[in-house]
Amino acid sequence: MSAIKLSSPATREFWEIPVLFEDDHLLALDKPAGLLTSPDRYDPLRPNLMKLLHAGIAAAKPWARERHLDYLSNAHRLDFETSGAILLAKNEPVLIALANLFGTDKPGKRYLALVQGEVSFPKFEVDAKLAPHPLKIGLMRVDQKNGKRSETTFEVLENFPRFGYALLRCEPLTGRTHQIRVHAVHAGLKIVGDECYGGKPLWLSRLKRDYRLKPGREERPLLSRVALHAEELQLPHPVTGELVTITAPMPKDLRVALKYLRQFSTGAAN
């Protein structure tokens, strides 16, 4: 499937977004990190995926024209820094069906997260109610008294105890804002790059003992954005009822980070 090319004249940014799944009713895209899903309530001028798609449809861009698109709407959202699978409806009845589906927590959602902290069990679950933070606008916190039911299961895919990092597969059983991020913190873990919740960037100099930087150069982190990737979305098709599984490959920045963690975690290459 061909990628969809989007650009923002205002910021001179360009995105080539892979298509993960498509039929007459659905379009699934691999959203890059660093792109909003929908308009920012505080800064409506920031580029966002839906506005760019709608502009492309209005301008009859080749990708829109070849698909005969006159409608696209997102069935759910991904955070600004989260990459991966996002599902769009090509008409309003399908959007309504998807909204009902997502409202029942039926779609199976799997994420990859690179976290910092000690992981004691290969699998664990966090069942902790979430509510908006009373002082920090836009953030969430565990609130067992006033929060909404929230459950997430975590599975360790790779562990790097030498440096205190682990790659987790996370499955939110409910769909609360920042659910994985806050539940990770509740479990004593912080997602790499998630500064809102105490996560720090990943630096090569912290992994490679004989790291040397050329004079006049400044080190850039291997990962500075929230290391969270929407890996898989599984749901019954809103029209046919058949099970649809949509998978987004691991993004380059996360692959590179894991490459160096694997390389230096044994100590042999240091």
Number of strands: 15
Full CATH superfamily name of the largest domain = Pseudouridine synthase
What is the CATH topology of the largest domain? Pseudouridine synthase
> Which CATH C-level class of the largest domain is it?
Alpha Beta
Helix content: 10-25%
Give me the CATH architecture of the largest domain, please: 2-Layer Sandwich
Query: Which segments are poorly predicted (pLDDT under 50) over 5 or more consecutive residues?
Result: none
Give the helices and strands as they follow along the chain: EEEEHHEEHEEEEEEHEEEH
Into how many domains do the coordinates divide?
A: 2
Q: What's the N-to-C terminus distance? A: 42 Å
If you average the pLDDT, what whole number results? 93
The quaternary organization reads as single chain
Structure annotation, total helices:
5
Provide a concise account of the structure shown:
The protein has 270 residues and is an alpha+beta fold. Helices cover 18% and strands 31% of the residues.
List the helices and strands and how they pair.
Elements lengths: L3 E5 L4 E5 L1 E4 L3 E6 L17 H10 L3 H4 L7 E2 L8 E7 L2 H12 L4 E9 L6 E5 L2 E3 L7 E3 L8 E10 L4 E8 L6 H8 L3 E2 L36 E9 L6 E5 L4 H14 L5
Parallel strand pairs: 6-14
Antiparallel strand pairs: 1-2, 3-4, 4-6, 5-6, 7-12, 7-13, 7-14, 8-11, 9-10, 11-12, 14-15
